[in-house]
Every structure is written in C-alpha cells, then in structure tokens.
Design a protein that fits this description.
Elements (H helix, E strand, L loop, with lengths): L3 E2 L3 E2 L5 H10 L4 E2 L6 H4 L8 E5 L5 E5 L11 E5 L12 E4 L2 E4 L4 H31 L5 H18 L17 H6 L4 E5 L5 E5 L1
Antiparallel strand pairs: 1-6, 2-3, 4-5, 4-6, 7-8, 9-10
Helix pairs in contact: 3-4
Length: about 200
C-alpha cells in the first residue's frame, strides 16, 4: 500500500540524543499529524516508488525517489507508483485523491498571477522609459529615441488599462518591437515565475 503521511510540523523531541543534535547542528525534527517522526518514518517508504512532498492545498513542492532530501515542514509526503511523465515540482502539479494531476488555479490565483505579470512588465517598461525621457527633457533625444519613447509610453498605458479580473483571458499588449530594443541596448530574457508564468524581461 502506498504511504501518505500528512501534515508534518516542527517539534522539540524529548530524546537526549535528539536534543543534543538540535543544539549542536541545529537539526530540525518534524512530526506528522498521527505522531510519526520524520527521520524514523523515512525508512518505511519503498525505495522504488516516486515520493511526493505536497502542501495543504495539494500543490507539489518536491518530487524524487530519494526521500532523504525532503524537509516537509508544513507539508505531507506520499509515494506513488504511477504519475504523468511531464509532472514536475514547478507548482503546476497537484497531488489529489492519490493521483498526480495538473493544477487547476482558482479565480483569485489567476488574478494574482496576472497582477504580478502586469506589475513586472510595468516595472521593466519604466526602466526603459526613464533614460529616453531624460534625453527628451534635456533636448538630447534623436528622432529614433523620440519614436521609441512614445511606443513604450503607449505600451505602459495599455498595460495599466488591462482588466485583470478577466484572467486568464487577457489580451496582453505586445511590447515595442525587438528592433527598437536592440537599437537602444535592450535585450529579451526569459524568466520563469514561481507560479509557472513565463515573463519576458527587458534588460
């Protein structure tokens, strides 16, 4: 039978040896809701099964065969014999009803993700607009820089007008062309957000 040991929390052991480890190396001791010590119950998992560390909402935080690398404080640990090949500990998968399944985001989570995405793009746009605006204010801007500045300002306005409540069905505006960014020393970097979003950075 596949194990599923739930809700590990930190505790202070009574054992003299364990207390010594706490003091000497700062060892953390965890206990499950049914009273199982984490270090002891690790031995009961089968070596050939996939182990899943998951949060109270089911979101998978860690996956692996070697359970010794887990530290499931505030989490539960289960083992599975079958799982989707593409499953990963990237916050896009959940452990629900004994199965590894794609995460289904709530409306609030989708809005939060969209807000982070918009705010990040606004921040990056502001970094690009600032030196271009300085050039205009000092009457040092080239015609190309003036055009680029207007394009980025329009992009920023469009971002501010987005209806975040409609996430994930948002028609995101495209940033000014790659040509404009390259002409002014900017490049695109792909960054993976903790919640799985892929955001283009203008650095």
């Amino acid at each position: 039978m596949m194990k599923n040991i739930k809700n590990f929390k930190r505790y202070h052991p009574n054992s003299v040896d364990k207390k010594a480890l706490e003091r000497s190396i700062g060892a953390i001791f965890l206990i499950s809701e049914d009273g199982q010590d984490w270090y002891e119950c690790q031995k009961t998992f089968q070596p050939e099964t996939m182990k899943i560390e998951y949060e109270t909402n089911g979101v998978i935080r860690s996956m692996g065969y070697d359970i010794s690398g887990f530290c499931p404080e505030g989490c539960s640990v289960a083992e599975v014999s079958e799982w989707p090949e593409e499953a990963a500990a990237n916050r896009k998968w959940c452990f629900l009803n004994g199965q590894v399944v794609p995460r289904v985001y709530t409306a609030d989570e989708l809005m939060e993700q969209a807000t982070h995405k918009r705010d990040y793009r606004l921040e990056q746009a502001a970094k690009i607009i600032a030196p271009l605006q300085d050039a205009v204010d000092l009457d040092m801007a080239t015609d190309a820089e003036k055009v680029t500045l207007l394009a980025w300002k329009k992009y920023r306005v469009l971002l501010n007008r987005l209806d975040i409540s409609s996430a994930p069905d948002i028609d995101w505006p495209d940033p000014p062309s790659e040509t404009n960014r390259q002409n002014h020393g900017f490049k695109t970097i792909i960054h993976r957000h903790p919640d799985g979003l892929v955001i283009d950075q203008m650095g």
